[in-house]
Amino acid sequence: MNLYEHTIIARQDTSPSEIKQLTEKYSKIVEKNEGEIVKTENWGLLNLSYLIKKNKKGSYIHFKIKGKGNVIDELEKNEAIDKKLLRYLTVRVKKFDLEANYFAKRDDDEKKESYKN
Description:
With 117 residues, the chain is an alpha+beta fold. The chain has one domain: Ribosomal protein S6/Translation elongation factor EF1B (Alpha-Beta Plaits). It is 32% helix and 42% strand. The protein has helices spanning 16-32, 69-80, 108-116; strands at 2-11, 36-52, 55-67, 85-93. It has a four-stranded antiparallel β-sheet, covered by helices on one side. A hairpin with a 2-residue loop joins strand 2 and strand 3. The protein is globular, with a radius of gyration of 16 Å.
């Protein structure tokens, strides 16, 4: 089994319920192709580095997937025709980092301490 990190960027006007539907849709595709979703992260609405299809922001969803290469082929085939998505990216990794949550909101206390140091 191969390990993949897969990120999709949805249009900025996509509602939270549509984000949930997209997450469920692509999770089912992975499971249908004998893959396993290890972890799903919703990174929220983030600024894009440059305009993509006239969008300044995008809603990021990140999947950690365990499966064979045909899982990714099927995912990307479906994502290429989805009008709600701006971009998608798949990276094969050697092991998952399940501890760190890079896009979580930090507490005010943590921010104050980081400014002191």
